[in-house]
Amino acid sequence: MVEVNQRLILPLDGFVQSLAIQQDIVRQLDQRVELKRQELLRPISAKVVAAANEVAGEKGLSIVIGKNEVVCGGVDITADVLKKITGA
Q: How far apart (Å, rounded) are the C-alpha atoms in residues 79 and 88?
C-alpha cells in the first residue's frame, strides 16, 4: 500500500511544482503587461491633462472632473479637449 501511495505522490508533487511555476510565469507576464500599459498610456494621459488644463483656463474653470463623477450640472468640455488633442 505504501508503494502505491508513493507512486501517486511523486507525480502529484511534480504537478504541483509545475503549476506553481506556471502561476509564477503568469504573474510575471501580468506585471510586464501592466508596466507596458502604463508606459503606453502615460504620454496619452499627459496630452489629455494638458489639453484639459488649457481648455479649463480658456473657459475660466478652476476644476475639471471626469464625466462619470458628475451627478448633475457642470460644463462638458470633452469636445473642446478632443479638438486640442487632435488639432481639429
A: 10
Question: Domain map of the chain by residue range?
Answer: 2-86
Residue 54 has what pLDDT? 96
- Mind giving me the DSSP string for 31-86? HHHHHHHHHHHHHHHHHHHHHHHHHHHHHT-S----GGG-SS-----HHHHHHHHH
Instruction: Calculate Rg over the CA atoms of the chain.
Output: 26
Q: What are phi and psi of 23, to 5 degrees?
A: -65, -40
pLDDT digits (tens, 9 = 90+) for 10-56: 566 777 788 899 999 999 999 999 999 999 999 999 999 999 999 99
In order of 3, 21, 29, 79, the CA distances from 26 in angstroms are 35, 9, 5, 40
In terms of Cβ atoms closer than 10 Å to its own Cβ (0-12, 13-18, 19+), residue 52 is: buried
State pTM to two decimals.
Answer: 0.66
